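Good morning,

Attaching, inline, the backbone tokens for the sequence recovery test we're adding to the shared suite. The designed sequence is right after.
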């Protein structure tokens, strides 16, 4: 019984080709999956760093706004003090007519 080796060689080459393609797809999937995980981890770390940086920026902004409000209140207090001193120094105007009295109707 002489075997037909050409049929066997063809079958082996088709099975090996299909196996090679299947393993290639599996390798590409696993590489992509691991890269996706790595990128997700890097994105999470960057988000944590950004949140810390944003928190520091927010604290700096609050500190700046508080200092500017304190300066504005100090200027307002000085202006009120000057206005009060001017009012105290100015002579009181005399009423030109008799004061009115409210009577019930």
């Amino acid at each position: 019984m002489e075997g037909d080796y050409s049929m066997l060689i063809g079958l082996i080459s088709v099975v090996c080709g299909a196996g090679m393609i299947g393993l290639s797809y599996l390798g590409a999937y696993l590489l992509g999956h691991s890269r996706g995980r790595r990128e997700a981890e890097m994105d999470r770390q960057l988000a944590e760093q950004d949140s810390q940086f944003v928190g520091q920026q927010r604290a700096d902004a609050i500190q700046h706004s508080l200092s500017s409000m304190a300066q504005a209140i100090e200027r307002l207090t000085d202006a009120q003090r000057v206005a009060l001193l001017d009012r105290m120094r100015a002579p009181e105007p005399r009423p030109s007519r008799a004061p009115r009295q409210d009577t019930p109707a």
